[in-house]
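Researcher: We're teaching a course module on how sequence relates to structure. For the next exercise, students receive a sequence and then see the predicted structure as tokens, so they can try to spot secondary structure elements on their own. Here is the exercise chain.
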Amino acid sequence: MDIKIIEIRDRATFIPVLCVDMNAEAHEECYYLRRCGYPNDGQPNIIMTRADGNGPASNDPYSWGGRTYPVAHDYIINHWPELKSGDVVDVEFILGESAAPKVSERIR
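Model: And here is the predicted structure for the students to work with:
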């Protein structure tokens, strides 16, 4: 399993999220994840939750409601291989509402 912490940004929004690709290599992990219904087919299957541990976790980007989480989660799934821990996923930029992506608050 691959784990990354991503900074989600939107209008007046800063949300660090913990993302885990639920594809396993170890036999034991594969067994349990398959029993939970994960396909373990090599395609990104990202479970996401707030990094502070407050709130739900989901691997369905459309279960969140609103706009920030679904747009960011879908983007993370579709761009998983190129993302790394600490990257910013800027919802306003993804939706074409801003000309440039936000810079991480971590490096300001």
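Model: If you want an answer key for the exercise: The first strand starts at residue 2 and ends at 10. The chain has one domain: 2-107.
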